[in-house]
C-alpha cells in the first residue's frame, strides 16, 4: 500500500497548481487577513480533502483546471472551519504548533474564517457551474449545522452513539463527500457523482473515528495536538460513549459522565484506563474499518488506473495513520 507522499506524487503538478491558486486567492489589502490566512494555510497538513478532488478528477480523465480551483475552494472551506473550531473549542495547539486564535486572538480568527468562507464563494461563482454551487452551498450549511450539533452535545453526559454519528457526519464527513462528488461533476460524470459522494462520506467517517480514537492513545507530538483534548472540552466522542455504556460499575460510569459534564483533564489517566478496559478503542476502530469497507465498495464502477488504486490506498490510510 502506498503512503500519502507517493499518492500525492501522482498528481504533483495539479497539487502545486492548487497551492498556487490558494496563495493567489489569499491575497487581501488588509494586512491581518494576509498574515493570519498565510499562517493557517502554511500549516499544511495532508491537504487530504483537496487531494480527493484532484484524484477523482484524474481517475475520470478530466482535462482542464476547474479541479484545481475546486480543490482550493474545498481547502478554504476546511480552513475556515478550523479557525472557527479552535475558537469555539478554546484550542491552543493544532498540527504541532500554536493555533491562530492563540497567536492572533479569537476575534481575528473568526473574522478571517469568514473571509475564507466568502472568498470560497467568490471562487465558486467564477466556475460558473450551478451544480458545483449547489453542492458547496449545501455542504457549507450542513457543516454549520454540525458545529451547532457538536456544541449541543458538548458536556452532555447522556449523549448517544447516534447523536455522535450525526455530528461527525455533518461536521467532518460531508466535506469529504463534497470533495469526491466535485471531482465527478466537473469531469462531466454525473452518473458517478452519487457513488463518489458516498465514497467520500464513508471515508470521512472513518477518518474522524480514527481521529477520535487517537485522541486517547496517540503521542502528543505525533498527533500534533494535545492528547485528551476531547475530554478536556467535554466532548462525548465514541470511545468515551462506549466506555460509559460498558463500564463494570456505577462508580466508573458516574466518573465518565462527570468528566463529560465538567470537562478538564484531572481524571485523564483513570478515563484512559476505563477506555482500555472496556475495549472502547477496539470498538471505535472496528467501526472505522466498517466505514472503509463501505467506502471502497463505492469505487467498483470507477475506471481502473493508477488513480483508482490511490483512492483505495487513501481509504486504507484513513485507519492506519498515527496522526
From TrEMBL:
InterPro entries named in the record: Isoprenoid_synthase_dom_sf, Polyprenyl_synt, Polyprenyl_synt_CS
The species this protein was found in: Aliikangiella coralliicola
Source organism superkingdom: Bacteria
Biological-process GO terms, alphabetical: isoprenoid biosynthetic process
UniProt cofactor(s): Mg(2+)
Pfam families per record: polyprenyl_synt
Family the entry assigns: Belongs to the FPP/GGPP synthase family.
SUPFAM superfamilies xref list: Terpenoid synthases
Catalytic reaction equation(s): 5 isopentenyl diphosphate + (2E,6E)-farnesyl diphosphate = all-trans-octaprenyl diphosphate + 5 diphosphate
Protein name per its UniProtKB record: Octaprenyl diphosphate synthase
PANTHER family the UniProt entry points to: ALL TRANS-POLYPRENYL-DIPHOSPHATE SYNTHASE PDSS1 (PTHR12001:SF69), GERANYLGERANYL PYROPHOSPHATE SYNTHASE (PTHR12001)
Matching Gene3D superfamilies: Farnesyl Diphosphate Synthase
Amino acid at each position: 500500500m502506498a503512503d500519502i507522499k507517493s499518492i500525492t506524487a501522482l498528481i504533483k503538478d495539479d497539487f502545486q497548481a492548487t497551492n498556487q491558486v490558494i496563495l493567489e486567492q489569499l491575497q487581501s489589502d488588509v494586512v491581518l487577513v494576509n498574515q493570519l490566512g498565510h499562517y493557517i494555510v502554511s500549516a499544511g497538513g495532508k491537504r487530504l480533502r483537496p487531494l480527493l478532488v484532484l484524484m477523482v478528477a484524474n481517475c475520470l480523465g478530466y482535462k482542464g483546471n476547474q479541479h484545481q480551483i475546486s480543490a482550493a475552494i474545498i481547502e478554504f472551506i476546511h480552513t475556515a472551519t478550523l479557525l472557527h473550531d479552535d475558537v469555539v473549542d478554546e484550542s491552543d495547539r493544532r498540527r504541532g504548533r500554536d493555533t491562530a486564535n492563540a497567536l492572533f486572538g479569537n476575534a481575528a480568527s473568526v473574522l478571517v474564517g469568514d473571509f475564507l468562507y466568502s472568498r470560497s464563494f467568490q471562487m465558486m461563482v467564477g466556475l460558473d457551474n450551478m451544480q458545483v454551487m449547489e453542492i458547496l452551498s449545501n455542504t457549507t450549511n450542513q457543516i454549520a449545522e454540525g458545529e451547532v450539533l457538536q456544541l449541543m452535545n458538548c458536556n452532555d453526559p447522556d449523549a448517544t452513539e447516534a447523536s455522535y454519528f450525526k455530528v461527525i457526519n455533518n461536521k467532518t464527513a460531508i466535506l469529504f463527500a463534497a470533495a469526491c462528488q466535485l471531482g465527478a461533476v466537473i469531469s462531466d460524470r454525473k452518473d458517478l457523482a452519487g457513488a463518489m459522494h458516498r465514497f467520500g462520506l464513508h471515508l470521512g467517517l472513518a477518518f474522524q473515528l480514527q481521529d477520535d480514537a487517537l485522541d486517547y492513545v496517540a503521542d502528543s507530538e505525533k498527533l500534533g495536538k494535545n492528547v485528551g483534548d476531547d475530554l478536556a472540552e467535554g466532548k462525548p466522542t465514541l470511545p468515551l460513549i462506549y466506555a460509559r455504556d460498558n463500564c463494570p460499575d456505577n462508580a466508573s460510569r458516574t466518573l465518565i459522565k462527570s468528566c463529560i459534564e465538567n470537562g478538564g483533564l484531572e481524571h485523564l489517566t483513570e478515563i484512559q484506563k476505563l477506555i482500555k478496559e472496556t475495549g472502547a478503542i477496539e470498538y471505535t476502530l472496528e467501526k472505522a474499518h466498517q466505514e472503509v469497507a463501505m467506502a471502497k465498495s463505492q469505487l467498483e464502477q470507477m475506471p481502473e488506473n493508477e488513480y483508482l488504486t490511490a483512492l483505495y490506498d487513501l481509504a486504507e490510510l484513513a485507519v492506519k495513520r498515527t496522526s
